[in-house]
């Protein structure tokens, strides 16, 4: 038996859940950082979601050298389906998320397992991160650190602050299963929707320690699908507000979200669509992809609805730099009330 390996007749303390799609570029480093953890009582589920690169081969090579790895190689079904499959197949009571482009520091699992063992009223614990670029160099990010206590979480939910770094999270599997796991309707922000639902049934926390290196690069999902992610996130917050106020949550059983124009009727409350457009606008001002896709039309309508104009004239200049003079002209006209 290899060091840290589980015997076949015992269940591990922890299941590590990683979904990969065409992740050959950073995969070996990510997997290596898991196998190097000081806490070794885990099974490592690595799901290849129909990759067309060398991902499957890399996974099989690692699995041949460490029997804690359980490879799952199948056709593409998308991230939400993959995360729910990993949650279903996890044998341990605790699940640690990990992405194929990030790097864990050696004591991450030990510190998070110890926290959950000492705090049975908490169902989720994350940690702070080092932000890095595609070369592993520091990535400057001007944002507050994530909340440490559950009270801070609730404050950030109400005031729009950060919550958790998804690949840095460890949670109790039974609690996540009890709320239905990840919801397909919230593609590209499925984690945010999950935290907002869990906040009503358990406590969440972050260790104020940087135990993961979180990578930023142009090809990651949050960069390529910025508009859809921001729309989903804004609707997830509206769903939380509905639940918090004791109103029905129409997203509870949804498999897809309606267009923004239908949100007032969908939630049975006026002003939802306007708030969503405003939230999306604030989230895409610096996204070249979103400014070139349907995000621009959402922003334009938000301005016409009387939404905040903070940063809008700089966005006009940004559109010109992106080679979008017609969009810059349309935004200028909307700002001038023409």
From TrEMBL:
Report the domain of life of the source organism.
Bacteria
Q: Where is the signal peptide?
A: none
A Pfam family that the UniProt record links to this protein: Glycos_transf_2
- Name assigned to this protein: Glycosyltransferase
What is the originating organism of this protein? Alteraurantiacibacter aquimixticola
Pinpoint the Glycosyltransferase 2-like domain residues: 15-178
Q: Keyword Transmembrane, does the record have it?
A: no
Tell me the keywords, alphabetical order.
Transferase
- What Gene3D superfamilies would the database entry show? Spore Coat Polysaccharide Biosynthesis Protein SpsA, Chain A
- UniProt GO MF annotations: hexosyltransferase activity
- Enumerate the InterPro entries for this protein: Glyco_trans_2-like (IPR001173), Nucleotide-diphossugar_trans (IPR029044)
């Amino acid at each position: 038996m290899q060091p840290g390996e589980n015997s076949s007749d015992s269940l591990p303390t922890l299941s590590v859940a990683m979904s990969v799609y065409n992740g050959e570029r950073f995969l070996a480093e990510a997997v290596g950082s898991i196998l190097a953890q000081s806490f070794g009582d885990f099974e490592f589920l690595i799901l290849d979601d129909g990759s067309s690169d060398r991902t499957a081969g890399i996974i099989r090579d690692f699995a041949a050298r460490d029997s804690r790895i359980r490879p799952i190689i199948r056709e593409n079904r998308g991230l939400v389906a993959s995360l729910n499959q990993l949650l279903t197949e996890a044998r341990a009571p605790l699940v640690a998320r990990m992405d194929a482009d990030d790097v864990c520091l050696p004591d991450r699992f030990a510190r998070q397992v110890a926290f959950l063992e000492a705090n049975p009223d908490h169902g989720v614990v994350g940690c702070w991160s080092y932000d890095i670029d595609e070369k592993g160099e520091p990535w400057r990010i001007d944002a507050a650190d994530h909340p440490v206590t559950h009270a801070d979480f609730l404050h950030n939910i109400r005031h729009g602050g950060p919550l958790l770094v998804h690949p840095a999270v460890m949670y109790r599997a039974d609690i996540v299963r009890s709320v239905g796991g990840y919801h397909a309707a919230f593609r590209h922000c499925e984690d945010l929707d999950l935290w907002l639902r869990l906040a009503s049934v358990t406590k969440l926390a972050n260790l104020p320690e940087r135990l993961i290196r979180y990578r930023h690069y142009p090809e990651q999902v949050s960069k390529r699908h910025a508009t859809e992610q921001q729309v989903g996130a804004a609707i997830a917050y509206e769903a939380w507000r509905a639940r918090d106020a004791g109103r029905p949550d129409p997203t509870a059983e949804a498999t897809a979200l309606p267009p923004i124009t239908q949100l007032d009727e969908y939630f049975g409350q006026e002003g939802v669509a306007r708030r969503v457009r405003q939230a999306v606008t604030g989230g895409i001002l610096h996204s070249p992809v979103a400014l070139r896709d349907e995000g621009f039309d959402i922003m334009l309508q938000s301005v016409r609805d009387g939404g905040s104009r903070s940063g809008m004239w700089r966005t006009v200049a940004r559109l010109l730099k992106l080679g979008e003079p017609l969009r810059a002209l349309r935004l200028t006209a909307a700002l001038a009330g023409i």
